[in-house]
Each structure stands twice: as structure tokens, then as C-alpha cells.
Amino acid sequence: MSLDRRALLARLAALAAVAGVGGAASAGQAGSGSRPGAGAGTALPASSVASGHLRRAGVDDPASLDPTRMSFPSEVSVVGDLFVGLLTLDAAAQPIAGCAESWSTSDDGLTWTFRLRPGLQWSDGAPLGSADFVYAFRRMLDPATAFTFAPRLYPIRGARDVNAGRTAPDALGVSASGERTVTIALEHPAAYLPEVLATYSSPAPRATIEKHGADWARPGRVVCNGPFTLAEWVPNSHVRLLRNPRFYDAARVRLAEVTHFTVDSAAAAVNRFRAGDLDVVLVVPPDRLDWARENLRSQLQLFPGFGIEHVVLNVRRAPFDDPRVRRAVALAADREALAAKVLRSGETAAYGIVPPRASNYPVPMLADFATWPQARRVAEARRLLAEAGYGAARPLRFTLSYGSGDVPRRVAVALAATWKAAGIQAELAPAEAKAALAAAQRGEFQAFRFQWLGGTTDPASFLERFTSAARGVNLSGYSNPAYDALYARAERTRDLDARAELLRQVEALALRDLPVVPLYWYAGRRLVASRVSGWTNNVRGVHLSRWLAVR
To answer: What's the whole-number mean pLDDT along residues 37-49?
Structure first.
């Protein structure tokens, strides 16, 4: 029998002491034309009465519910329940119409015009119009906001200069015409723009933000426009949401309530799922997979993802300012053993930066040692280390930082063991996830285990973060003028085949210089209760509560 809600919250709060992201770019091909706004794809039938309480469990405690403060997958999920941009994602994580009921592009692909739905409202009943989007885009690119994913908006005219503080936010190429028209001017054609806008185009309530400042996205203050509103937020425990009756598609939202629980231990979340206290668990630890396959069967969802697990190397300081050391560490990592023996849930060894199944990128790039046997890699790693001055008398030592949790710990321990075979000594330094990321963003680390989930299925979402301008996401501190120039040239190239070839050259530079050590391509390991309907597995791993229902 399930625990009552009060007991469940108490138990989860006790456990959560520490906290453990095929493309549709064709929708944005340059050219004129209209994109209709019905678009729910797998939408549930309309209903005038919502019912049911969905209980979801992730592993990250949100640091903020402000759309410009998103860093962790849990924040993307909760923010996606609270806010809807010009476009949004359907159940399969494909871009569809959001607050914009339709959009069109100019013949040269440089001007996008969005027509908003009539009668849009904020959750407090105030009208929502084009000015709210113009303000939001300027705020996202304002350097004072320090929006981590600002580089994803760099195709917008003037975005780089605004984000670098060289020009004022009002110079950004986003404008309003009347209450219902938003126009976005681009520096160059961007076929993947709909995917970007489906995640990073939420409007912003200017009056609320100016009144409350950085704390505006808190219960009792936040004003949102999505399918749910914020009812309660208890850090390290849960975020509780209620159906928003003022949402433009509220009649199709079938849930009355959603609670996003934070659970530090993925194993504990599995136990709560087994007891019937949770409906969705976003991470199943590898050591519970065999049990889940046997006992939970169809409720266990395994599927390929669109993300990469890697180790970020701080190239600004020793020992990783030496490219020979970076290559040695990359060579010695036994990816095959990590995927097959530690994770065992569909992950595959990664020898590149851009994952398979990227849009407009038919031929993936691989490191030159991808086909070498592990023994040859280890031998070459030892040779490089000796050349750099390391050996038995002076072994390479560094600290590997990682966010706490079952899976990160297992991966870090296994990785350190594979490095040891090459005479490399890695000291493990677990930390609370938000603290570990904050330290990495300040450059206070040597090596940092990190997972990067594609914000779009375009290869740019993986390659842009190694440009010198990618503040906040270029954790390694990598800076290469040749890389920057080649990436900029690729982004200005309209022909998709020519662009793909340029991006392959960009990726080749990253694989030569190795600011990160690719480990494995991500795979999703979810538990979804049989009483949940509307669930659709997708490579983005994004599952908005709007499309779900419980029986």
C-alpha cells in the first residue's frame, strides 16, 4: 500500500540531502511559408475537467525556476511545465507551435515572423503579448543575466555583441509589431532555429522581475504562462505544480497536479516506485537494471539518447595545459568496459563529440584511435606521459570532480581504475551537483565528469560550446582562433551539406586538441508506471507533463 502524501514527503526530504538536458530542423528550412499552430501531435483528448496527480522523481534539486537560470535536466523539466515559448515540444520532443499559432520565413532565411495566439494570458490574468517576448530575448542575451545557454541564440542578429556587452540589449534583432507579431532577424540562415526556440524562447513577466529581482521565480511571486503554475517549492525535497486554467490549451491538460521530487539516491527512487509512491523515475542505477528487467518489465523504458558523458579537462592550468597529457588521459580511458560492464543499459563507447543521429550531419567524426585495441592505447598513453615528464617515479596525478549520486560514483570509480592501468592516478572528489558545476564554471577544477544533453539535434549544440565566446558552457577554457573561425564560417553557410563538412572539420580540431575526454553516448533508463499514459520515448529525453495523464 502506498504511503500517505505527508509521510512520503517526509521520507523523501530526509533522503534528499544532496542532489546526485531525429531532429526536426526541417521545420525551419529557409524559405517562405506558414507553419500552422494546431500541432500537438500525440495530444490527449480535450477535457473540461483535469484530474490526477503525477509524481515524478529526478536526481537534481533545481537551483532556480527562472528560464534563464536552467543548468540541470530537472530544471528543464520543471521550467517546461511552467513556461511555454514561441514554440514548444510535443510528446516526442519535436518542435511545434507554442504561444505562436503560426510562423513564416523570408526567402533568404534571415527573417522569421511569428504570429501569437489571440487572448494569451499570464497566470495572474494579465495579458501576454509580443513585448513580453522582446523583453525576454533581450534579458537572455544581456550579459548581466549570465544566461548559460545564450550561445544557442547567437544566430539572432546582434546577439553575440549584446551578450559580450559591446552593444545595448535593444540592438538585438528581435522586434514587435502590434500585440501579436514577433519578428526575429538572423545573422545567417539557421535551419535548426525551431528546435532552439522550442526550449529557449519563454516570455518574461517584466513587472514581476523588476519588482522582485533575482527572487521573482518563487512561490507566491512567480508569474508563468505554461500548463501549470507553481504551488510549492521545498528545496531538496519537491516542487509541486497545479494546472493553470489560463493556459491557452488548458482544455487538453489532463493532470490536475504534478510533483517533481528530488531524490539523491537513484536506488531509493526505484524503491519508491516499487512501493507505488512514484509514477516516473528518470534514472535507474545500473545495479538495479537486471532486477527491473525481470520484475518491472514493460514499466522499464530503455532507449538511446542524444547526449554524451565526458570528462572536461581544465586546459588553463597544469597538468592539462599540455596536449600530450590530455591525449594520454583520453587514450587510457577504457570506454568499452565502462559501457558494457558498468552501465549495461544501451550506452555505447564515444569517440567523437557529436552523437549519432544528429540532424544534417550524416557522417560522424571519430578520434584517430577509435579502432585501436585498448592495449595499444595504453602503450601510447604511457609513451606520451613519459615524453611529458611523467613515469613510475613521478606519476601523473590529478583530481576528478563529479556530482554525487549512484551512477556518477560508479562511473568515476571505474574510470579511475582504467586510468591506473596506464600509471595515471586520479583522486576522486564527489560534491553536491550544483556546487560541483559552480566550481567548474569558475575554473576551480582539474578534471570534471560532466554530461551534456543536446538542446537541439543539430551538431552545433555540441560544437558551439568549445568556441571562445561560449561563456558558461565552455568549462574547459579551450580557446583556439582556428576553431572559432571555422565554426563561424560553418554557421554562415546556408547549404546544409557544405555546412556539415565544415562542422566535421570543426569537430576534428576538438578531437585533436581534446579539451574533453568523450566516454559514452547517453542512453535513457526510465521507470514509467502502467497507470501513466501519453509517454513517448525520444532521443532528447524531454517529457513535458502537459502530454501525460494518470489513470
So the answer is: 40
Measure CA 526 to chain center.
17
Does the pLDDT at position 510 exceed 80?
Answer: yes
CB 111 within 8 A of CB 183: yes
Distances (CA, A) of 239 to 58, 73, 535: 11, 14, 21
Mean pLDDT over 156-185 rounds to 96
The CATH class for the domain spanning 1-18+48-83+226-279+529-551 reads alpha beta
Three-state DSSP string of 439-474: HHHCCCCCEEEEEEECCCCCCHHHHHHHCCCCCCCC
Per residue in 64-123, pLDDT tens?
899 998 767 668 889 999 999 999 999 999 999 999 999 999 999 999 999 999 999 999
Using 50, 70 and 90 to split pLDDT, how confident is the model at 285? Answer: confident
- Judging by DSSP bridges, how do beta strands 100-105 and 34-35 pair with one another? antiparallel
Please report the beta strands in 2-133, taking only residues with DSSP state E, as ranges in sequence order: 34-35, 53-58, 87-89, 95-97, 100-105, 111-116
Q: CA 134 to CA 203: how far, in whole Å? A: 8
Q: For residue 33, is it left (φ>0), alpha (ψ between -120 and 50) or beta? A: left
| Bridge partners for 280 per DSSP | 56, 528
310-343 in b/e form (b: 16+ CB < 10 A) is bbbbbbeeebbebebbbbbbbbbbbbeebbeebb
305-522 has which CATH code? 3.10.105.10
Residue pointed to by grid coordinates 576534428 = 508
Q: Could you tell me where the DSSP H helices lie in 227-373?
A: 266-274, 289-295, 323-332, 335-337
What is the reported pLDDT for 526? 93
Domain ranges of the chain: 1-18+48-83+226-279+529-551, 84-223, 305-522
* pLDDT tens digits for range 242-265: 999 999 999 999 999 999 998 878
Record the cell numbers describing residue 316, joined without a space.
588553463
- Domain 84-223 CATH (choose: 2.40.50.100, 3.90.76.10, 3.40.50.720, 3.50.50.60): 3.90.76.10
